[in-house]
C-alpha cells in the first residue's frame, strides 16, 4: 500500500519537475542556451504568485493571469539578450548563472530571506486532496501534473503541426540552413524564450501552492531538474515529461522503502547508468530534435 | 610575451607586499570619544538567512536602545555586522578581518552552529570574548570565553527529550507509540541520536521510558519532497510525531500529511521557523516546540514594562523590514541575551580588555532581561542552568505550556 | 622558456612564503594571511579544474566531489580516528585521485561522450557522494566533524601562518603542475583534444591516456586542497563541502581568468575573492551578489576568451593602470586601505585590457597575432575575388615562386621535386601513364581487408569487402553517395570498428586497435571537411603530427620539420597564421601537410578536392602526386573521375557497400556494371 501510494504521489509530483525542466530542456536543445536564469524566472513566478494572492486575496491559480504575461516578457527579454551576445553554449551557462545570482539577491532584497508561505485562507489547495479508497491524491500535485500534461501536449502539437513549430525544429537541426529557407531565427527564439518564461510562471505557481519560499530554494532545484533534463533527452518535451514522472517515482519509492537520504543516491546513480547506456536520454524519440 | 606577463605578476606581488606592510596603521580603540565597535557576522543571505534576519533586527534594536540610554561607559556603541552568506568558509575569514583588520573592540557570535564553531576558533586565537546565541551543544564549544546566550543544559540531547516526555506524560492519555523524524543536520540530529560518545537522545530515551518507536526516519536537510515521509508516518499512525528538524521542515511535513488526509494526533518540532507553522492555520493547532521565551501576557507581566516595550518595538521594526513573522520570541531573546552578556562584561570589568571581561563573566555572571541572572561555569562550557520551556500553538498563537511554574497556559492533549 | 617561467613561479612563491613566515616582523595582520590562504585555496581548486576542463575542454561540474572527499578524509580520519593530520593530506589526494580515475574510466570509455554529457555526469557525482555520506551516518557521526588543530612545528609561527603556508604550498604546486602540463607534450595533447578530439586520436595522440592523466592530476590537487580547506573551516559538514557553490565558483574563476592558460584561474581566483571581500567589507551585502553576478555576466559577454588573453595582449597597459591607480590611491591615501587600492587597480587594469582588446579598437592597432592573420587575409582575398582565369594564372605563378624558393621535397623520401609549372599537364599525363604501367612491379601488400563488414543498426554500410593495397599504389576509391567509401576510410583509420572481418596494415592486425596506435603503425588520413586544431598556428598543427607520430619529437624540434612539410604544400608563408584565417583550399593543403608529417606508410585522402575551383584542383593534384612520389601509398576518395583517371594507378568501385570493380582506371571506367551503377546516376561526369 505504502509503495503504491509513494509511486502515485511520486508520479504526480513528477509533473512539477517536468514543468520546471521543460523550459530548460527546450532552450538548451533548440537555442543552444543552457539557461540557468530559468531557475530565477521560476523563483520570481513563485514569489509573484505569493504576492498577488496574498495582497489581493486572489485565488493562487488565477494569479496566472498576471504572472504568465509577466514571465513571458521576462523570458523573451533574456532570450533577446542571449541572442544579442552570441554566446557559446558554455558561456551562456556562465552569463545566465550571473543573472541567476542577481535574481536571487533581488528577490531576497524585495521579499526578505525569510520563509514566505501563502496563508491557509488564500490558498485552500495546500491541504486539499482527493481520496479513492486508501489512496490519496493531493490537489497541488494534481494541478502540477495536469499543467505539465497540458504544456507537453500543447508544445507537441505546436512543434508538429504549425509552421513556427517546424521552423523551430529546423533551427534545432541546423541554424544556417534554416536561415537559408527564410526562417527568422531571431524572432522565433525570442518567441520561444517568451513561451519558456510562461512555463516558468506555471512552475512557480505550482511550487508556491505547496511550499514555503526562500530565495535560496532556486539552488535546491538544480539537481533534480537537471536529472530530469538529462534523462528526458535534451530538447525532448515528451521525454522530459516521462523523465519527470520517473524521477518522482524513484525518489518517492526509495524514500518510502529505504530512506529519504538514499533517494538522491539512487536517483543520481540511475542517471549515470542512464547516461552510459543511452547518452541521448532515456526517452529521446521524436520531440524537438 | 611570457617574460612580460611574469613581470606583471612580479610587480603586482611586490606592490601588494610593500603596501600591505604599511597599510596596517588604521584605527585602534581606547580613546574615550570614539565609539565602541562591536563586530559580528550574520547569515543575511543563503540557507540560514531566515533566522539571521531576526538577529539583525534584534541587535539593531538593542544598540539603538543602548545608545539612547547613554551608550556603554559613556561611549556610543557601533555595530558592524557583515553578511557571511550562510557560508561557513567565509565566517572565519570575516571574523579575522573584523578582529585583526577592522580592530573592532568587541565581537558577537554569528548564527547557526557550524558558523559559530568557525568563528569561535578565530575568537580563541585572538583571545576575544564571544557571546553567541544559538549553539547549544556543549562538548563542541571548548573555548572558555565563549558564552552561550541560549542554554538547554550542558547535555541538550537528553534534556530536550526528557522535558518533552515529562510534559506529555502529564496528559490524561500519555502517548505510547511515537514516530521520530530527524534532519541530518548538525543543529538537530544530536537530539535524536546523541553526540559523540554520548549516545543518549530521543531514540534511546524513548526506549528507556518504555515508549514504542514505530517509525525512525532520517532525512537530509535538502529534502524537498515530503510525501513519502508523511505516508510512512500515516501508515504507522503514532500517538506523537517528533520532528527533530529545522526551519520549515515541520510545516512541510504537516502539510504533506494533510494532503494525505492525515492529521497526527500530536506533533513536536525541534527548532521550527515559527511563522510558516502559524500560516498553516488549523492544521498546525496543538503543535509543540521548545522555547526560551514567548511574549505571552502573563510572562511579560512578570518581567516588567521594559520587556513589553522591547518586544513591541521589535515587532514594529520587523514589520518595517517586511519580515513575515514579527514576534519577538526565542531567537530574538537569545540575541538580546548575547548582547546583554557582552555589555554586562564591559560594564562590570570597566573596559574592553578581553581577559578581564572573560574573568568577570566567570566570576559575576550577567543579568539579562529575559532569562534573569546567568552564571557561567567553565566546567560545563559556561552553559547556565536552563530556562528552556515547551510551547504550543493554541488558537493560532504560540504559548508557553511547560514546565507548569512558567507556563502561560495549560498543555493541551490530542484533539479527539 | 620553461626555465624562465619556472623561475618566475618560484620567485612568486618565495616572496609570498616570506610574507607569511615573517608576517609578525612585517606587521602583517593575520587577516591578510587568512585572506591570502583563502585565495590560495581557490587558486588550487580553480587550477585543478582547469587542468582537466580548461585544457581538454571537458567541463566538469563536479569539483565539489574532490573538495568534499578531501575535506572528509581529513576531518573524519583526524577528527574521529586520531590519524595524524599530515598523514591525511596525501591520503586525501590518493582517494580523490582514485575517484577521478574511476569517473574518468567510466566517462571516457563512453562511445559517444559529448561535452555536455560529461558536464552533467560530473554534476551527479557530488550528489551521490553527499547522499552516501548521509546514508552511512557512521562516517561522520551523522552531524559533521570538528577538525582538530594539528601540532604545528614552532618554526611556522602560529596557526594562521601555518595554514597560510600550507595553502600556499598546495596552490604553488598546483600552479606549477598546470604550468608544466601546459608546456609539455601533455599540454599539446590536451589542446588538440579540446580542438578536435577524434582528429587528434587518429593522428596518433593517445587521447584516453591523456584525459585520464588530466583527471588524475585534477583529482589529486583538488583532494589535497580540500584537505587543507577542512583545516581552514575547522568544522566539516556535508552541506559545507559537497554544495553547488564550490563547482560554480571554480568555473566562474576559470572562465573569467581564461581557461586555456595556467595563469587564467589564478587571475580569476584573485579577482573574485578580493572583490567579494571588499564588497562585504563595505557593507554592500545586499549588493554583493548583484555586483558579482553582473561582473560575471558582463565579462563573459565581452571577453569570452577570459581576462588573461586580454591582459597578455596589453601587459604594459594593464601593469601601468594597476601601478598608477593603486599607487595613486595609496599616495593620496584619502580613501580605503591597501586592499581597496589593489582591487580598484585590478578592476581598472582588467577593464582597460578588455576595452582595448575588443575588436573595434584592436583592429586599428595591430598587436599580438593579428598581423599574421591580416597578412593571410590579404593574400587570400584576391584569390576569392578574381575571375577563374586570373586565379589560374596567379596560382601557377605562386606555385612557381614557391617551387623556386623552397628546397625540394619532404625529408622522408623521393627528390623529384615539383614539376615545372609551365608544363604541368604534360607531366601529369606522363605520370599517369607511368603509374598505370607500374602496377606489376609494386611492392608487398600493405593493407589487407578480409571480409570486412560494418553495420549501423539495420543499415549495412559495408558488406564483406576484401581488398589488398600494395606499397606504392595510388588507389582511387569511387562510388555513388552512400556506397561506403567514407565508412571504409573510417574503418581503416580506426575511427570505427568493423562489425566483422579483419584489417591488417603492414602485416599487423589493426582490426581492434585504438586509432592512435594504428597511426603509429603507419596510417594517416585527411578529412573531407578540413578539421585543423583551431587554437594552434598552422605550423604547430603540422608539428603536432610529428610530436605524436611514429618517432615522437619535442615541440621545438618538431617545428622546423613542420615547416619543411608546409613548404611541400606551399603553405610555409602562412606558418604563423591560425587555421581560421585560411581559405578552404589552404585548409585542405594543411590537412595533407599534417597527414604527411606523421610519416605514414599509407595516406587516406577523403575527398581532398571537394569544393575547389579548377585551378585549385590542379594545384592539389600536383601536391598529391608529389606526396605519392615521396614513397607514400595513397588511398583517395574522389568524385571527379577525370582527376582520378589521371592520378590513380588503380580504381576500386564500391556500390551499396560491396566491391563492384577493381583494376586499372581505364578498364574499370569502361566496365558496364560500373557505368550502370555509378555513371548512370552521376550526370555531371
Task: Give the arrangement of secondary structure elements.
The complex is a heterotrimer of chains A (289), B (416) and C (685).
Chain A: H1 2-31, H2 37-56, H3 64-85, H4 89-111, E1 129-132, E2 135-138, H5 139-161, H6 163-173, H7 175-180, H8 185-210, H9 217-232, H10 237-257, H11 262-277
Antiparallel strand pairs in A: 1-2
Helix pairs in contact in A: 1-5, 1-8, 1-9, 1-10, 2-3, 2-4, 2-8, 2-9, 3-8, 5-6, 5-8, 9-10, 10-11
Chain B: H1 2-22, E1 36-42, H2 49-68, E2 77-83, H3 88-101, E3 106-107, H4 113-126, E4 130-132, E5 146-148, H5 156-169, E6 177-183, H6 189-193, H7 202-208, E7 212-219, H8 227-236, E8 240-247, H9 249-259, E9 267-272, H10 274-279, E10 288-291, H11 297-303, H12 305-320, H13 330-349, H14 354-364, E11 366-368, E12 372-374, E13 389-394, E14 397-402
Helix pairs in contact in B: 2-12, 2-13, 3-4, 8-9, 13-14
Chain C: H1 2-21, H2 23-26, H3 30-56, H4 63-80, H5 85-108, H6 115-135, E1 145-146, H7 159-182, H8 185-203, H9 207-233, E2 235-236, H10 238-241, H11 245-257, H12 263-281, H13 285-302, H14 307-313, H15 315-332, H16 338-357, H17 359-362, H18 370-385, H19 388-405, H20 424-438, E3 445-456, E4 459-470, E5 474-478, H21 485-493, E6 500-505, E7 508-509, H22 515-521, E8 523-525, H23 538-547, H24 555-568, H25 584-597, E9 602-606, H26 614-629, E10 633-637, H27 641-647, E11 650-655, E12 658-663, H28 665-669, H29 672-677
Parallel strand pairs in C: 5-10, 5-11, 8-9, 9-10
Antiparallel strand pairs in C: 1-2, 3-4, 3-6, 6-7, 11-12
Helix pairs in contact in C: 1-7, 3-7, 3-9, 3-11, 3-12, 4-5, 4-6, 4-9, 5-9, 7-9, 8-9, 8-22, 11-12, 12-13, 12-16, 14-16, 15-16, 19-26, 23-24, 23-25, 24-25, 25-26
Keywords (chain A): Amino-acid transport, Cell membrane, Membrane, Transmembrane, Transmembrane helix, Transport
Protein name (chain A): Branched-chain amino acid ABC transporter permease
Membrane topology (chain A): Multi-pass membrane protein
Structure characteristics:
heterotrimer; A: 289 residues; mainly alpha; two-stranded antiparallel ribbon; 11 helices; 74% helix; 3% strand; C: 685 residues; alpha/beta; ABC transporter involved in vitamin B12 uptake, BtuC; Rossmann fold; 3 domains; six-stranded mixed sheet; 29 helices; 10% strand
Amino acid at each position: 500500500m505504502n509503495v503504491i501510494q509513494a509511486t502515485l504521489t511520486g508520479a504526480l509530483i513528477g509533473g512539477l519537475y517536468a514543468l520546471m525542466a521543460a523550459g530548460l530542456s527546450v532552450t538548451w536543445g533548440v537555442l543552444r542556451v543552457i539557461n540557468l536564469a530559468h531557475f530565477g524566472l521560476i523563483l520570481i513566478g513563485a514569489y509573484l504568485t505569493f504576492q498577488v494572492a496574498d495582497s489581493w486575496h486572489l485565488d493562487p491559480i488565477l494569479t496566472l493571469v498576471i504572472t504568465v504575461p509577466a514571465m513571458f516578457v521576462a523570458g523573451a527579454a533574456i532570450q533577446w539578450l542571449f541572442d544579442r551576445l552570441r554566446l557559446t553554449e558554455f558561456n551562456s551557462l556562465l552569463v545566465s548563472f550571473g543573472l541567476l545570482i542577481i535574481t536571487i539577491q533581488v528577490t531576497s532584497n524585495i521579499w526578505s530571506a525569510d520563509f514566505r508561505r501563502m496563508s491557509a485562507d488564500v490558498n485552500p489547495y495546500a491541504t486539499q486532496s482527493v481520496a479513492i479508497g486508501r489512496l490519496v491524491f493531493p490537489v497541488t500535485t494534481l494541478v502540477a501534473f495536469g499543467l505539465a500534461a497540458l504544456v507537453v501536449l500543447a508544445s507537441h502539437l505546436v512543434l508538429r503541426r504549425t509552421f513556427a513549430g517546424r521552423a523551430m525544429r529546423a533551427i534545432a537541426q541546423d541554424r544556417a540552413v534554416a536561415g537559408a529557407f527564410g526562417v527568422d531565427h531571431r524572432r522565433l527564439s525570442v518567441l520561444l524564450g517568451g513561451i519558456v518564461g510562461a512555463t516558468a510562471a506555471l512552475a512557480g505557481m505550482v511550487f508556491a501552492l505547496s511550499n514555503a519560499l526562500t530565495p535560496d530554494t532556486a539552488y535546491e532545484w538544480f539537481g533534480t531538474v537537471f536529472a530530469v533534463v538529462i534523462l528526458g533527452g535534451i530538447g525532448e518535451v515528451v521525454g522530459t515529461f516521462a523523465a519527470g514522472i520517473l524521477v518522482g517515482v524513484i525518489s518517492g519509492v526509495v524514500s518510502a522503502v529505504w530512506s529519504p537520504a538514499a533517494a538522491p543516491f539512487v536517483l543520481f546513480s540511475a542517471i549515470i547508468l542512464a547516461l552510459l547506456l543511452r547518452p541521448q536520454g532515456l526517452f529521446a524519440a521524436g520531440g524537438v530534435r | 610575451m611570457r617574460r612580460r606577463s611574469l613581470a606583471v605578476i612580479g610587480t603586482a606581488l611586490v606592490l601588494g607586499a610593500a603596501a600591505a606592510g604599511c597599510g596596517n596603521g588604521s584605527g585602534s580603540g581606547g580613546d574615550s570619544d570614539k565609539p565602541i565597535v562591536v563586530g559580528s557576522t550574520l547569515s543575511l543571505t543563503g540557507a540560514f538567512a531566515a533566522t539571521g534576519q531576526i538577529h539583525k533586527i534584534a541587535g539593531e534594536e538593542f544598540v539603538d536602545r543602548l545608545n539612547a540610554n547613554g551608550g556603554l561607559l559613556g561611549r556610543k556603541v557601533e555595530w558592524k555586522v557583515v553578511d557571511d552568506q550562510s557560508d561557513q568558509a567565509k565566517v572565519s575569514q570575516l571574523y579575522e578581518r573584523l578582529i585583526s583588520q577592522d580592530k573592532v573592540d568587541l565581537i558577537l557570535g554569528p548564527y547557526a552552529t557550524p558558523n559559530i564553531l568557525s568563528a569561535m576558533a578565530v575568537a580563541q586565537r585572538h583571545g576575544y570574548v564571544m557571546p553567541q546565541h544559538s549553539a547549544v551543544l556543549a562538548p563542541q564549544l571548548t573555548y572558555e570565553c565563549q558564552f552561550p546566550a541560549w542554554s538547554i543544559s550542558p547535555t541538550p540531547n537528553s534534556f530536550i527529550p526528557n522535558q518533552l516526555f515529562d510534559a506529555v506524560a502529564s496528559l490524561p492519555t500519555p502517548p505510547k507509540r511515537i514516530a521520530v523524524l530527524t534532519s541530518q543536520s548538525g543543529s538537530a540530529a544530536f537530539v535524536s541520536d546523541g553526540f559523540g560518545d554520548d549516545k543518549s537522545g530521543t531514540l534511546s530515551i524513548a526506549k528507556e521510558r518504555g515508549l514504542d518507536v514505530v517509525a525512525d526516519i532520517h532525512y537530509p536537510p535538502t529534502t524537498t519532497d515530503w510525501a513519502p515521509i508523511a505516508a510512512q508516518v500515516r501508515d504507522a499512525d503514532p500517538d506523537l510525531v517528533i520532528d527533530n528538524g529545522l526551519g520549515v521542515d515541520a510545516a512541510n511535513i504537516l502539510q504533506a500529511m494533510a494532503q494525505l488526509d492525515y492529521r497526527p494526533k500530536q506533533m513536536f518540532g525541534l527548532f521550527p521557523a515559527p511563522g510558516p507553522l502559524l500560516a498553516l492555520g488549523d492544521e498546525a493547532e496543538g503543535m509543540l516546540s521548545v522555547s526560551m521565551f514567548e511574549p505571552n501576557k502573563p510572562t511579560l507581566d512578570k518581567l516588567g514594562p521594559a520587556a513589553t516595550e522591547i518586544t513591541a518595538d521589535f515587532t514594529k521594526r520587523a514589520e518595517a523590514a517586511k519580515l513575515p513573522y514579527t514576534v519577538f520570541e526565542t531567537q530574538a531573546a537569545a540575541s538580546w541575551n548575547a548582547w546583554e552578556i557582552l555589555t554586562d562584561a564591559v560594564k562590570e570589568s570597566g573596559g574592553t580588555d578581553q581577559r578581564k571581561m572573560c574573568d568577570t563573566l566567570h566570576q559575576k555572571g550577567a543579568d539579562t532581561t529575559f532569562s534573569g541572572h546567568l552564571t557561567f561555569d567553565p566546567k560545563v562550557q559556561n552553559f547556565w542552568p536552563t530556562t528552556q520551556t515547551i510551547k504550543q500553538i493554541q488558537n493560532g498563537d504560540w504559548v508557553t505550556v511547560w514546565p507548569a511554574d512558567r507556563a502561560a497556559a495549560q498543555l493541551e492533549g490530542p484533539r479527539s | 622558456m620553461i626555465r624562465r617561467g619556472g623561475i618566475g613561479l618560484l620567485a612568486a612563491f618565495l616572496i609570498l612564503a616570506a610574507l607569511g613566515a615573517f608576517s609578525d616582523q612585517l606587521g602583517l595582520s593575520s587577516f591578510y594571511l587568512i585572506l591570502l590562504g583563502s585565495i590560495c585555496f581557490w587558486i588550487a581548486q580553480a587550477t585543478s579544474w582547469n587542468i582537466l576542463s580548461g585544457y581538454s575542454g571537458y567541463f566538469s561540474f563536479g569539483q565539489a566531489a574532490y573538495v568534499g572527499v578531501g575535506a572528509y578524509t581529513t576531518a573524519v580520519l583526524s577528527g574521529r580516528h586520531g590519524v595524524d593530520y599530515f598523514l591525511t593530506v596525501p591520503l586525501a589526494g590518493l582517494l580523490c585521485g582514485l575517484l577521478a580515475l574511476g569517473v574518468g574510466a567510466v566517462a571516457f570509455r563512453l562511445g559517444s561522450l559529448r561535452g555536455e554529457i560529461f558536464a552533467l555526469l560530473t554534476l551527479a557525482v557530488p550528489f551521490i557522494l553527499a547522499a552516501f555520506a548521509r546514508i552511512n551516518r557512521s562516517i561522520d557521526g551523522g552531524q559533521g566533524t570538528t577538525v582538530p588543530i594539528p601540532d604545528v612545528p614552532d618554526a611556522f609561527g602560529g596557526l594562521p601562518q601555518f595554514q597560510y603556508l600550507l595553502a600556499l604550498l598546495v596552490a604553488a604546486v598546483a600552479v606549477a603542475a598546470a604550468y608544466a602540463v601546459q608546456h609539455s607534450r601533455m599540454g599539446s595533447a590536451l589542446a588538440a583534444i579540446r580542438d578536435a578530439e577524434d582528429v587528434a586520436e587518429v593522428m596518433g595522440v593517445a587521447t584516453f591516456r591523456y584525459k585520464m592523466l588530466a583527471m588524475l592530476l585534477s583529482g589529486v590537487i583538488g583532494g589535497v586542497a580540500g584537505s587543507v580547506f577542512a583545516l581552514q573551516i575547522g568544522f566539516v559538514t556535508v552541506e559545507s563541502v559537497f554544495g553547488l557553490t564550490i563547482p560554480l565558483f571554480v568555473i566562474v574563476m576559470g572562465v573569467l581568468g581564461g581557461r586555456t592558460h595556467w595563469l587564467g584561474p589564478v587571475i580569476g581566483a584573485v579577482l573574485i575573492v578580493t572583490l567579494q571581500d571588499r564588497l562585504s567589507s563595505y557593507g554592500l551585502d545586499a549588493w554583493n551578489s548583484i555586483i558579482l553576478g553582473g561582473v560575471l555576466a558582463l565579462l563573459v559577454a565581452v571577453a569570452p576568451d577570459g581576462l588573461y588573453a586580454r591582459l597578455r595582449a596589453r601587459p604594459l597597459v594593464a601593469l601601468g593602470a594597476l601601478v598608477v591607480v593603486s599607487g595613486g590611491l595609496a599616495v593620496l591615501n584619502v580613501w580605503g586601505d591597501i586592499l581597496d587600492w589593489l582591487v580598484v587597480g585590478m578592476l581598472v587594469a582588467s577593464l582597460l585590457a578588455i576595452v582595448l582588446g575588443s575588436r573595434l579598437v584592436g583592429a586599428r592597432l595591430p598587436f599580438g597575432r593579428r598581423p599574421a592573420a591580416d597578412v593571410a587575409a590579404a593574400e587570400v582575398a584576391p584569390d576569392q575575388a578574381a575571375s577563374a582565369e586570373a586565379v589560374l594564372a596567379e596560382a601557377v605563378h605562386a606555385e612557381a615562386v614557391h617551387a623556386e624558393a623552397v628546397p625540394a621535397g619532404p625529408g622522408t623520401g623521393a627528390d623529384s621535386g615539383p614539376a615545372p609549372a609551365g608544363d604541368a599537364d604534360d607531366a601529369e599525363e606522363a605520370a599517369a601513364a607511368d603509374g598505370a604501367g607500374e602496377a606489376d612491379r609494386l611492392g608487398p601488400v600493405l593493407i589487407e581487408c578480409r571480409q570486412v563488414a560494418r553495420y549501423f543498426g539495420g543499415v549495412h554500410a559495408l558488406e564483406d569487402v576484401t581488398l589488398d593495397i600494395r606499397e606504392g599504389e595510388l588507389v582511387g576509391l569511387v562510388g555513388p553517395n552512400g556506397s561506403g567509401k567514407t565508412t571504409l576510410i573510417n574503418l581503416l583509420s580506426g575511427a570505427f570498428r568493423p562489425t566483422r572481418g579483419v584489417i591488417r596494415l603492414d602485416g599487423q592486425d589493426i582490426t581492434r586497435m585504438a586509432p592512435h596506435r594504428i597511426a603509429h603503425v603507419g596510417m594517416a588520413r585527411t578529412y573531407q571537411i578540413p578539421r585543423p586544431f583551431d587554437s594552434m598556428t598552422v605550423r604547430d598543427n603540422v608539428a603536432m603530427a610529428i610530436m605524436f607520430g611514429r618517432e615522437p619529437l619535442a615541440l621545438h624540434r618538431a617545428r622546423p620539420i613542420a615547416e619543411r612539410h608546409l613548404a611541400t604544400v606551399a603553405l610555409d608563408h602562412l606558418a604563423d597564421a591560425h587555421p581560421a584565417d585560411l581559405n578552404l583550399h589552404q585548409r585542405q593543403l594543411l590537412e595533407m601537410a599534417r597527414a604527411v608529417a606523421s610519416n605514414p606508410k599509407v595516406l587516406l585522402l577523403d575527398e581532398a578536392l571537394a569544393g575547389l575551383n579548377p585551378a585549385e584542383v590542379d594545384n592539389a593534384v600536383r601536391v598529391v602526386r608529389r606526396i605519392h612520389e615521396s614513397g607514400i601509398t595513397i588511398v583517395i576518395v574522389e568524385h571527379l573521375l577525370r582527376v582520378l583517371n589521371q592520378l590513380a594507378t588503380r580504381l576500386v568501385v564500391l556500390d551499396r557497400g560491396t566491391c563492384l570493380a577493381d583494376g586499372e582506371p581505364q578498364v574499370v571506367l569502361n566496365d558496364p556494371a560500373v557505368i550502370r551503377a555509378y555513371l548512370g546516376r552521376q550526370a555531371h561526369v
